[in-house]
Amino acid sequence: MTTTPHGRPFPRPAVSALPQPVLPALTRRNFLRLTAGAGAGLMLGACSGGSGGGQGAGTATGTATGTAGATAAAGEYTGPAVDLAFWNGFTGGDGPLLLEIVNRFNEEHENINVAMNALEWAQFYSTLPSATSSGEGPDVAAMHLDQIATNAARGVIMPLDDVAAGLELSESDFAGTVWNAGIYQDVRYGIPLDVHMYGFYYNKTLMEQAGLDPESPPQTRDEYMAALEALKAEGIQGHWVSPFLFTGGHTFYSLLWQFGGDLFNEDVSEATWNSEAGVEAITWMRSLIEEGYSPADVGQDAEHIAFQNDQNAFIWNGIWQINGYGDTEGLEWGVAQIPQIGDERAVWASSHNFVIPNNRGADPNKQQAAAVFIDWVSEQSLDWAKAGQVPARNSVRESAEFAELTEQNVFAEELDYVHFVPTVPGIPDAMAEIETGVNEAILGSKEPQQALDDAAQRANEALEANRERYQA
Fold this sequence. Notes:
By secondary structure, this protein is of the alpha+beta class. The protein has helices at about 30-35, 95-110, 120-135, 150-155, 160-165, 175-180, 205-210, 220-235, 245-260, 275-290, 300-310, 320-325, 365-380, 380-385, 395, 400-405, 405-410, 425-445, 450-470; strands spanning about 80-90, 110-120, 140-145, 185, 185-190, 190, 195-205, 315-320, 335, 345-350, 350-355, 390, 420. Strands 7, 8, 9, 10, 12 and 13 form a six-stranded mixed beta sheet that branches. The protein has a five-stranded mixed beta sheet with strand order 2-1-3-11-6. A hairpin with a 2-residue loop joins β4 (about 185) and β5 (about 185-190).
């Protein structure tokens, strides 16, 4: 039994019933929508994994007191042969790519054998806590950045400071923003694999029809509005505004930061997206509808489908669409950095991090071997970049081979100004409320200020409840 992206929960499977290597069940778009919190009731018993809710029943409680892999020095493992279970949610087209990387690791490490299980992200997040508390969880896993604090607070995952020290990893080895985002309460729980952010895809065919230079996409507000006007003059609605998280919600986050606002105050005790900057951001999005640059009621994924069918000229979408658009027959497209509509450059981003689950009765040898696996895959993440990711590891991102990945390099240029959701337990609960506010404002059922105010009030209640729940 499965679920829609909007809230009917997955049943929790028995651990013995977990699917075997890489299930081609979901597209990348669908599983990312699941993990980014399409609404209440999804993921972890409440919302989705990327911006979902609480862990649900059967979780491990308390924080982990030990550390994992303290003697896994410099990426070497010399202990007895071990079998590692590696869980993740990569059930789309990138799953087979990751499986190839895992198989290469196995070929090069005689005393470590990694078996990869890919579950739908909803299933992964709902199953992991109870499996870990019973000692039947994976030995290593991949997790979205905004789920790390929740799982750390529940004791589901292990501290990794000793792992990082043993592997001689530090901030200088990674993009600094994502390296620091894996820390909760001054303790490291995640080691980053990648960064995935939004970029600006443009339809060259439609730009040519409007007399625009298809090799010179607009990058400023004035350029963007002039381009939309030129497209409109040719009967083309240039930027379809989605009321859903994909792509409207992430567009709003990016614009909020561009206009100088933020999602929350400094200690994440209060939502602040209903600020003047937030209203300005959502008002600009609404104006695209009111001025005829976008249809009034864009359905889920309609903007994405219209782009592929030469009906929508511009779309702000994730790096994971590179391969999909590249495989679309007849589509002439390009990608650029997100245009600067506000006062500064900013863009939403997330990341997949490696974590080591806090399995009851875990074998220290397996924890050390898991650390070696994490380090090796991080160093081999060029192939992972081909799936539509920016490698977190500097050495990979700065390599000549990565430089040949033209579109991925465009996204990598945004690393200096990416923004992540803050690392706070239960933060997906609050993020689900902003998605409702954006939906109401874009569809016009509420005025922008009222929609954002109402969403912020509900989010503040969720933040307070989570402080009590997680004692944080």
